[in-house]
Amino acid sequence: MTDDRTKPEIDAPTGPTPQELVIRDLIVGEGAEARPGDQVTVHYLGVEFDSGEEFDSSWNRGESIQFPLRGLIQGWQDGIPGMRVGGRRELVIPPHLAYGNGGGHFLGGKTLIFVIDLVAVG
């Protein structure tokens, strides 16, 4: 897969804030499958669940990003494995699987929505 897919748009969430990780495949990929602890290359967009405000996007920087899954927030460590290269997945991550319930991080206490395109594994 090339990483030239366009930046996704996230619809304003409706309903109650989920208390557990929500995983929804928007596009099912056909490439290599990500496994726990893999090195992955992704494009992603993150918004706050309550406000719908975008807080980060690799598309805005114009390049994908590569990192080991084990170094990321728990919601990504749990939500990306099983995804295949070429896929696009939405993760809704409650605070206890993101940046915690309290201060310290500007996203602490917030439920987050990420749309992730898996560009490469390994």
In the predicted model, the low-confidence regions spanning at least 5 consecutive residues are: none
Could you say what the CATH topology is called? Answer: Chitinase A, domain 3
Please give the domain count: 1
Question: Largest sheet, described in full?
Answer: 6 strands, antiparallel
Report the structural category. mainly beta
Number of strands: 6
Tell me the fraction of residues in β-strands, as a range.
25-35%
What letter string, H or E per element, gives the SSE order? EEEHEHEE
- Termini Cα gap: 14 Å
- CATH class, anyone? Alpha Beta
Q: Approximately how much helix is present in the residues?
A: under 10%
- Any guess at the CATH architecture? Roll
* Dominant shape: globular
Number of helices: 2
Mean pLDDT: 92
Radius of gyration: 14 Å
Explain what this protein looks like in three dimensions.
- It is a single chain.
- By secondary structure, this protein is mostly beta strands.
- It has one domain: Chitinase A, domain 3 (Roll), CATH 3.10.50.40.
- 8% of the residues lie in helices and 33% in strands.
- It contains two helices and six strands.
- Strands 1, 2, 3, 4, 5 and 6 form a six-stranded antiparallel β-sheet that branches.
- Strand 2 and strand 3 form a beta hairpin.
